[in-house]
Amino acid sequence: MSRPTPWAVLPALLLASSLAGATEVLPVDEVRAGMEGTGRTVFEGSRVEEFGVHILGVVDKGVVNKPGGPRQSMILARLEGGPLAETGVIRGMSGSPVFVDGKLVGAVAYSYPFGKKPIAWITPIGDMIEATRVTTPRATSARFKPVLGPGGLAAPLDREQVVASFEGPLRAMAGDRLHGGALPVTGSGFSPLALPLVFSGFEPSAYEWARGVFSSMGFAPVLGSGGAASGDLGPLPDLEPGAAVGISFIEGDLDLSATGTVTHIDQGRVYALGHPLYNLGPTQFPMKKAYVYSIFPSLQDSWKIAAAADAVGTVDQDRSAAIAGRLGAPPPMIESEVHLHSVREADRTFRFRIVRDELFTPVLAYVALLSVLQSHERALGSMTLRIDARLVLEGGQEVRVEEVLAGGQPAPRAAALVAGPLALLVANELEKVTIHSIDVDVVADEETRSATIERAWVDRSGRLRPGATTTLKVLLRTHRGAPLTHSLPLRIPTSASPGTYDLLVADAATFDALEQQERQRPFEYRDLDQLLRALNELRSGDTLYARLTRPGQGAIVGGEYLPALPASVLSVLQAPGQGASVVPLRTMPVWKAEKVTDYAVSGARRLSIEVER
After folding, report:
1. Residue-wise over 69-96: b if at least 16 C-beta within 10 A, else e?
2. How many CB atoms sit inside 10 A of residue 582's CB?
3. Residue 551 and residue 468: Cα distance in Å, rounded?
4. How confident is the model at residue 69 (pLDDT cuts 50, 70, 90)?
5. What is residue 192's three-state secondary structure?
6. What is the β-pairing status of strands 382-393 and 398-408?
7. Where are the domains of the chain?
8. For a tag on the chain, would you pick the N or C end, based on fewer CB atoms within 10 A?
9. Whole-angstrom Cα distance, residue 431 to residue 358?
């Protein structure tokens, strides 16, 4: 009878099994100080070169990957060869494999900033493979809640709340807890080699905004001059240990990608970095070949000037000790188009694709749209933008965003109006949402097209009776003082009782605030369709809204206005155990109307009208 396998050696057996017939491995418990090895990476072009590695020691279980998480052993080494004496450990070397006597030890992954010598920490290959073998769902630190306040979102939803929801992924990505929750950092001062993150085709001020966000995530953002690696370079060699590998976030007319190094390939399974991209768990990022143009030496941290090229597969795991993916087809991405109509130049269309990711998608959509608007319109000064966006889901449902923005620097708000609904959709907890495409139509005008409600009156020649029709007139005053008069047909309901009625004419923000005060309930949705309806019913800033109300019993039951409820019925609805959400009202709307204008409207006017017998 064979003896049972001790649990302590099980990981080593699993690792040996996964690498059987391929690369030999030197387990971390056999690594000793004084060993000499070689590393592989690309310093320029696409050719993998070797560098020397001197093992200084092993810190057993010395690194905490995340608060409360397991500790992993790390290997301390001094590197030499190539440009390393001048540059130190280079950003972009993350994942560079290290071999001792031809056996794979692990990947260069951590270093010290401002180091005088190229001292690096190596993540053992066993930890890399085990970490990416798991199939657990996304970690809490890689998710976000779009609701910012303790009371949640107010009902009905309004533009301000939707825009504010975009702060959810921003806070998750750029909050103070990032380095403690997403990327491993030790108390000894060493940290993961920041991945060069190249923004190509982006407008400088949009890049500056994004640089702050992604720097706080542990990336090393760089503003590039072009898109992906040029096709003039010719075909790049297949990925191999030591080759440069790109992880794509945006591709097309705008390009955003990070660059690291391949550690190991086993039957089409690719392991890289030796530390997380962002510890997202399951992912769907395009994996690409990459080309290194040069090394930029720096006293703080040198980095590879590189660009992603051809897609060769999918990065499907982002874990504490490595990323992993599979060679083959790249993942589907969100097809995005921005059509820009401008008075200053010919119409232009920008086409790009964005990764599908709960955390990254809203932020990437924001910075891409912001870049397009600010690179081809004025980033500063007053102007008017008319936005018409369609967010199409995989099942065919869509959200329509229509808005007019006037005044100083409207581009950031326009971008947030698209990113906000995306954040609400991908973060909803009722149903997984897959965004298929984003189509944004933008009409830009250098004139400030805003107007204020100055006066409202009822144009009538006789007494108002139930069933009568008259005209409500509204005087707007434009940004430059020009008067504009709009007319709305006002019909008194045939069921209207005699008395005094309140007539309110106002902008979208005023009506949203009024109804939120009336409902006294947070915004809640029972299914995805209800969320989609709420987003599609958002009031628009270019529209005049009018409402006629009267005193009387009524209630909002389950979010629906029910006028003229008898007191007995209202009492039954409010009784315990009825289950329905009931908000009693002292006034009830009997007529509503709206009128679209060519201006961003603000202001409100209220008047009383008498309905006679």
Report:
1. eeebbbbbbebeebbbeebbbbbbbbbb
2. 18
3. 20
4. very low
5. strand
6. antiparallel
7. 1-330, 334-445, 450-611
8. N
9. 13
Residue 358 has pLDDT above 60, yes or no: yes
Signed CA dihedral, 365, 371, 374, 379: sign only: positive
| Residue 463 confidence (pLDDT) | 79
Band (46; pLDDT cuts 50, 70, 90) = very high
Is 90 exceeded by the pLDDT of residue 138?
no
Q: Which of 251, 237, 244 is nearest to 293 (CA)?
A: 244
Q: Which residue has the tokens 């709305």?
A: 488
Q: Residue 114: which region, alpha, beta or left (left: phi > 0; alpha: psi -120 to 50)?
A: left
Tokens encoding 212: 């702050």
User: In 3D, which of 486, 539, 537 has the Cα closest to residue 508?
Assistant: 539
Q: Which residues contact 576 (CB under 8 A, 6 or more apart)?
A: none
Dist. CA 232–CA 238, nearest whole Å = 17
Tokens of 187: 């108390």
How many residues would you count in the chain? 613
Nearest to 131 by CA among 327, 271, 241: 271
pTM over 0.85: yes
**Which pLDDT score, from 0 to 100, does residue 10 have?**
45
